[in-house]
Amino acid sequence: MDLASIDFFTVPTATFRVLYVLIVLSHDRRKIVYFNVTENPTAQWTAQQIVEAFPFDTAPRYLLRGRDSIYGEIVQRRIKSLDIEEVITAPRSPWQNPFVEPVIGSIYRGCLDQVIVLNERHLRKILREYFSYYHTCRTHLSLKKDPAEPRMIEPPELGNVIAFRRVGRLHHH
């Protein structure tokens, strides 16, 4: 993996709490390699998530991120200690992060706009299910209509087509 992006997005709960989700996206196959949820993101928490996202020698060469204040000196030092070069987008320029921003839009449209999140645990469960679907079933035009995890196309002669429910019946495959 040469290039990855990180970004936060927010999710309101049924009790009007706001949860923050950090996602780490690998650009080569549009795969979400890591995510975590918290009610109170801090620079220390974010720095720890960077380490957990890239265990051992799996760190990318470049990490694309925004200019959010959450990426303070602690996070920058942690990224540098992993021998990752930061690529920082211009202020108020989400289009400069062209892969993670559309993924966040997909997460909202394909999942979070359809459910009421109860709490952190519930959100983690929903996102795990959606990311499993996203990686194995959801096709990407940029990957020649292949999902993030490549699959074989089976001809209809091999048997009947059967639909499987995914993500709490929001999607089928």
Structure, described:
The chain has helices at about 45-55, 75-80, 100-110, 120-135, and strands spanning about 5-10, 20-25, 30-40, 60-65, 85-90, 165, 170. It has a single domain (about 5-170), classed as 2-Layer Sandwich (Nucleotidyltransferase, domain 5), CATH 3.30.420. It is α/β, with parallel strands linked by helices. The longest helix has 17 residues, at about 120-135. It contains 4 helices and 7 strands. Strand 4, helix 2 (about 75-80) and strand 5 (about 85-90) form a beta-alpha-beta unit.
Observed structural traits:
173 residues, alpha/beta, Nucleotidyltransferase, domain 5, 5-stranded mixed sheet, two-stranded antiparallel ribbon, 4 helices, 7 strands, globular
Helix/strand layout:
Layout: E1 3-12, E2 18-26, E3 31-38, H1 43-53, E4 62-65, H2 73-81, E5 85-88, H3 100-110, H4 120-136, E6 165-166, E7 171-172
Parallel strand pairs: 1-4, 4-5
Antiparallel strand pairs: 1-2, 2-3, 6-7
